[in-house]
Amino acid sequence: MSSTPDTQCLLETPYFKVVRENGYFIIKEAQAVNGVVAVPTLADGRLMLVNLRRRAIGGQSIEFPRGAIDAGESACDAAARELLEETGWQASEVRQLGLLHSNTSLIASAVAVCQVQIAEQQAAATDGEVDHVLWASRQELLAMIAAGQITDGHTLSAAMMLLASESA
């Protein structure tokens, strides 16, 4: 990225750039939609959450599965792939619920949110990232959020998008 009088590249990594534009610091990634949150749903309505260690917060986090969208991959394909890699569960149907912006004052890219229908049977081995899988009804999910057990912004946003799409 070349610098102009109003834009200066401060840091460039293989994953993102930090620029200063008109006095503001902005993180820019290669793709406008660079990540996906999968909201795994069984036929009976229960939702799958994962418990995993997040080094940035120094502890465990309860979240919906999520990850990067590979170059040339659709958000729906990435949601199905991330679900399989992290949990071993196969997607049967995927629909995109919308986009979320993690931090509109700092991060330029968006994250797609996809509801992923899953069958009752676990499919394959995982990448080992997830410590264990949890199942929750929508009421149990709301209770976990109210109790402060779920603090991950992507999961909170995805839960709201799911509930809003069902009441619309």
From TrEMBL:
<protein>
    <recommendedName>
        <fullName>GDP-mannose pyrophosphatase</fullName>
    </recommendedName>
</protein>
<dbReference type="InterPro" id="IPR000086">
    <property type="entry name" value="NUDIX_hydrolase_dom"/>
</dbReference>
<dbReference type="GO" id="GO:0006753">
    <property type="term" value="P:nucleoside phosphate metabolic process"/>
</dbReference>
<dbReference type="InterPro" id="IPR020084">
    <property type="entry name" value="NUDIX_hydrolase_CS"/>
</dbReference>
<keyword id="KW-0378">Hydrolase</keyword>
<comment type="similarity">
    <text>Belongs to the Nudix hydrolase family. NudK subfamily.</text>
</comment>
<dbReference type="GO" id="GO:0019693">
    <property type="term" value="P:ribose phosphate metabolic process"/>
</dbReference>
<dbReference type="Pfam" id="PF00293">
    <property type="entry name" value="NUDIX"/>
</dbReference>
<dbReference type="InterPro" id="IPR015797">
    <property type="entry name" value="NUDIX_hydrolase-like_dom_sf"/>
</dbReference>
<dbReference type="GO" id="GO:0016787">
    <property type="term" value="F:hydrolase activity"/>
</dbReference>
<feature type="domain" description="Nudix hydrolase">
    <location>
        <begin position="28"/>
        <end position="158"/>
    </location>
</feature>
